[in-house]
UniProtKB/TrEMBL annotation, chains A, B:
Native species: Alkalibacterium pelagium
Biological process (GO), any one: tRNA modification
Function comment: Catalyzes the formation of N(4)-acetylcytidine (ac(4)C) at the wobble position of elongator tRNA(Met), using acetate and ATP as substrates. First activates an acetate ion to form acetyladenylate (Ac-AMP) and then transfers the acetyl group to tRNA to form ac(4)C34.
Subcellular location: Cytoplasm
Name the UniProt record assigns to this protein: tRNA(Met) cytidine acetate ligase
HAMAP family documented for this protein: TmcAL
UniProt EC number: 6.3.4.-
NCBIfam families the record matches: PRK13670.1
Record InterPro entries: Rossmann-like_a/b/a_fold, tRNA(Met)_cyd_acetate_ligase
Gene: tmcAL
Length: 399, 399
């Protein structure tokens, strides 16, 4: 049973390749994906809704997709990994597979063990380094490279960094889960342009093209599976710009005191946000005006997500967040069989349909889903209450 | 020095007639208008901004327009009257002039005195009556008509009710202010249709026509002065529907506990609002779904305004609200002379321009103004900080 952590924003050929390699090279019988829902790790709304992204994954190699709770998805890498890996473990995965720039699984295992052995000293160094005018990611890899003569991984690469976070979680918690990475093919995470000589591009490049050109966007057709391409052309494409009005409103109504209580808010930033919002007319303009050397675009976007969702430091004490239930977004026949055979062994409830009783575990995701739909002017309401998991068995019958 | 309380939503020929009659019949030398800003007594945004409405008033008979603070404008008649009349008194008005269905000034004076003499007993009766399934206005006039054999005023008429509230405030506080009413001409407040055989229609009928037909709206041309007609055709027309997205968002993010703390919130209503918002796709549909026999459209709209502005019971303790400064929206030459001669005698500061130091007195109005502009998709920003009072002297020179 192999687990994958994903966002699929959008699902593209590189993701399909990763699923195929996981199936073939790692001999995975069943593949479970834990996927971010409407709001993502980089602190932004998904370009299309979670249902379309889950469906594309199921039609291209995944057997079961569950939702990573919003409390864990809009987070720095560590909490993101903590939530995702803990869910995979609860669902009985004995193997994790992730894409990386490095591609050497042994390097991830060694890096994680090295880190955990020296965690106390490293934490002190991080605290000192945080005073400097550098981004968190830069500080992190600088500290690692100063402390260790030769660290097995290049942590300036974003997918290495995420894989490293999964590996750390697994080793620290002594989860019974093998760590395997598949090297990424043809594309670097930070590529911003599509290169038509390949059929694999980064999600960043695909999103950028989609949001610039809007629909119909034939430019991305060769880079994504047909199911995803259809979804990208039939649904509204959502970006932070579509939610900017709500953020603008929210910032203008909140007091400095309330803002200072928002999760991940840095000291003094509340004043800067209040000041800059009054002149900004787009999210891009706003973030450009607020960001500093230490506060990256991504960390600001994450804080803005928490402002939008009214997540306070108080209600986001992560050490108190236990994942008791997981939302099932969809499954194939193999997924259904796996669920049937194993669900009694699991330490989390797998929830297929939301109603009054089950909804209590998903209040944050329902709120996030409601806000997400407000970005869409022709919005379909109630994506959470009236939507059943995608049943790939029925899809096959219908096709 | 004559004072007028107004909303001018929009300014129409009836208002112009009222200003003319005030000037001629009541021999008013200078006319000061205290006008609601962006959000009004009925709990809705003004159809066009406060600047256009003030300008139309100045070009059609008013000498000076000041803004009624939002804390007093989005209120039941009593608090609305309290704020407005206290400002007129602070600015040295020795006469108030208002339009009414009744038209008999002596009736208002007698009604106010009668009421004040019996206030304690009447308050008890109101409290008992409030248990019944009737609207506040209905209860009010029922109690009055049961208690008094013959009450001098018909309080089921909305303008009589407002005038009565002003008269009560004046008599209760022993303000040195004469009470005069001008009978309304040709139109009833509740008329919903325009009647082309007249050139005077109710603001309600004009608004309804404007919001149904949108621009250019020649149907209202004969009912409003030219300056107002131009503004109505050159500016976005704002209604609650333009703010519904923000309300929807706000309700989905607020907890039941937070909602219960909102000013004017009735017990249990917080649950009903949360429940009904998830399916409503327009303000009209939402209010229709929420309203009951006791909770009228207008009271619900008012509560929704306070939700939008995050006004809590705690920060809206009205007995603690003192009006220390008043925002000047515009003046004529006579207005300027009057200000120059008398401002030293006033117990309130008259503020022409907002900047850091003066803004502290207008935080609520600045917030309201910011939210109001969010309703306009092509919004002009910062209506409060970069706008100077309308100077009718310069307008005349320019024309």
């Amino acid at each position: 049973m192999c687990g994958i952590v994903a966002e699929y924003n959008p699902f593209h050929n590189g993701h399909q390749y990763h699923l195929e390699e996981t199936r073939e090279k790692l001999k995975a019988d069943v593949i479970i994906v834990v996927m971010s829902g409407d709001f993502l790790q980089r602190g932004e709304p998904a370009i299309v809704d979670k249902w379309s992204r889950a469906r594309a994954a199921l039609m291209n190699g995944a057997d079961m997709v569950v939702e990573l709770p919003t409390d864990f998805s809009v987070q720095p890498a560590d909490f993101f990994a903590e939530g995702a890996v803990s869910i995979l473990n609860s669902l009985g995965c004995d193997l994790i597979s992730f894409g990386s720039e490095d591609g050497n699984s042994q390097a991830f295992r060694e890096a994680a063990d090295l880190y955990i052995e020296n965690e106390a000293e490293l934490d002190d160094l991080f605290k000192q380094a945080h005073q400097q005018e550098k981004t968190y990611a830069r500080n992190f890899s600088d500290v690692i490279n100063t402390y260790f003569d030769q660290f097995p991984l290049d942590l300036t690469q974003p997918n290495n960094m995420l894989g490293f976070a999964y590996a750390k979680e697994i080793r620290r918690n002594r989860y019974d889960m093998a760590i395997e990475t598949i090297p990424r093919k043809n594309s670097h995470y930070h590529d911003h342009e599509l290169d038509s000589s390949f059929n694999i591009a980064s999600a960043t490049a695909i999103r950028r093209t989609l949001l610039e050109k809007r629909q119909p966007c034939t430019a991305v057709e060769s880079f994504v599976p047909a199911e995803m391409y259809d979804a990208l052309n039939s649904q509204p494409l959502i970006s932070w710009e579509d939610l900017f009005l709500l953020l603008d409103y929210r910032l203008s109504v909140m007091s400095i005191e309330e803002l200072s209580q928002i999760y991940l808010m840095e000291t003094g930033l509340e004043y800067r946000l209040k000041e800059k919002i009054s002149d900004a007319v787009s999210m891009r303009e706003f973030i450009e005006a607020v960001k500093t050397k230490q506060l990256t675009w991504v960390s600001l976007q994450r804080i803005c997500c928490h402002i939008l969702m009214n997540n306070t430091k108080q209600n986001m004490i992560m050490s108190e967040k236990e994942i008791e239930a997981v939302r099932l977004l969809g499954f194939t026949e193999a997924g259904r069989d796996y669920i049937g055979r194993h669900k009694k062994e699991w330490s989390v409830n797998l929830v297929s349909n939301l109603h009054k009783r089950t909804a209590v575990n998903f209040e944050q995701d329902i709120k996030a889903g409601h806000i997400y739909r407000l970005a869409d002017k022709e919005r379909i309401r109630q994506q959470d209450f009236y939507t059943k998991p995608i049943n790939f068995i029925d899809i096959n019958t219908l096709n």
